[in-house]
């Protein structure tokens, strides 16, 4: 598969400590969105900080970048991707349930 070959090459470069080109980083962000999970961060006038995660096999990688907010502001990639560990957190959400009693409303006759 061509997609797997591309990502395998990306992972090999990351493992070897080689820098990815801007076009390689753009391709990860733009073309592998179904493999990505992206979080929005700080919102500024011209850019929004973003963090995208992509998987290759059982390994996960993070790519920080800046998303341009207008057609005149291009997205920017200042940092290289790095490996991360996928962890899961449980969240407890309190829920309040009414306690039913034999309360009957008073009705005026």
Largest sheet: 4 strands, antiparallel
**Element pattern in H and E:** HHEEEE
Backbone CA Rg? 23 Å
Low-confidence stretches: none
Distance between the termini: 79 Å
Structural class call reads: alpha+beta
Quaternary: single chain
| Overall number of structural domains | 1
How many helices? The count is 2
Summary, kept brief:
By secondary structure, this protein is an alpha+beta fold. The chain contains 2 helices and 4 strands.
Could you describe the 3D structure shown?
The protein has helices spanning 2-16, 22-31; strands at 36-43, 47-56, 59-68, 82-84. Helix content is 23%, strand content 28%. It is elongated. A hairpin with a 3-residue loop joins strand 1 (36-43) and strand 2 (47-56). The chain has one domain. It is α+β, with helices and mostly antiparallel strands and 109 residues long. The longest helix is centred in the N-terminal third of the chain and has 15 residues, at 2-16.
